[in-house]
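User: Hey, my collaborator sent me this sequence without any context and asked if I could get a structure. I don't really work with proteins. Can you help?
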Amino acid sequence: MTKRVDSDGRRLKVFKETLLALQTDLGGLLAGSIAALWISALTAYYWTVILYPMILSVRGAINGILSGRLSTGLHLKLVNPKLKENTEYFHAILSALFTTTMLMSILGSFIVFLLSHILYGIELQLLPIIISVAIVSQYATTLITEPLTSFLSFTFYKRGIDPDVVTYPISSTMTDIVVTFMYISAILSAIKGYTWIIFFLTLVFVSATIYIIFSFRKNEDYTRIIREAFFVVCITLLISSIGGVFLSRIRRIIEEKPGVVVVYPALIDTIGDIGASFGSMCTTRIMLGLIELKIRGVIKLLWEIIQMVSAALIMFILYSMLSFVAGGGFVSILAVLLTFLLVAPFTIVFSFIMAIVTFRFGLDPDDFVIPLETTFTDMALTVALSSILYVMA
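Assistant: No problem. I've predicted the 3D structure and written it out in structure-token form, which is a compact way to encode the shape of the chain:
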């Protein structure tokens, strides 16, 4: 009897571990609650709706790069597990990601403006405000989350917990909460007539970035990280802008059904974590020669897929109920569950393809694989959810 219980436990090991890991995504409900509480600010203009998914995705990509580099650096002794008196490599990582944040905020602002101008005819005079809101919300978030993510990674490492496993899921949820709060605060400053505050902070943050660039311009690690991260985050911007456009199309629906906004960050966190976890599993199995470098190789992971998808389904059922309670109505329940049925298969297939690409081209998973996996799944979920809500409405 005991042997049978142990056997069943091992057979459901992936399910239990996945369900446990996905509990951290419940923190995304706090980010969604902040957005829903100030729903009038989030949906004040079309550009504020378009920019929100982009900010979440970019912050997630940059935080993923930071988590991966810190974990790898700790294992290779390139980074010391302490915030003070750390290595030059550690400071190069932080400085490079601060610089990348600034560059992506500016580039993302222009993308949002162009899309909003083409689709909704917004005026050129709004461009400085869009740029300032993007820079302030992103840079202020970075000032908070980079030290916190580093602290978490160092703490786990010193306690014998593998930072590769736990740092990103926890820090990504934390980042969603902080960036949502900062984004809403920046929008409210613009709406309430305090644009001088965000303009002043923009000037401060731009000046700080210029100082960082001049200080680290000869550091090889700094320039390499920017070069590699810039490519990935640029793709993230372009892909997430698609989700932003679809979300802007249901701007009025979002205002009427704030329950959808409450669960939105948790939804993209959950589906992104499934993609990242399954992709990591596939990469490991391929490197060990346990599965083929072909699509049919995914069949050998069918039992693991069933367990992961089942764990994610439980979370989506919970989110659908919470969306209903938060004012989304029965429509939100159907929309969340239908979105899962559409996006989950895409996530599994895409993650497996990314694992094959990683192995064949020798790509660095810290800088490339996980950020792109989460970005594509974020976009797919946003497009599916927006389309379903639009049709149902």
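In plain terms: Residues 1-8 have pLDDT under 50 and may be disordered. You can pass these tokens on to your collaborator as they are.
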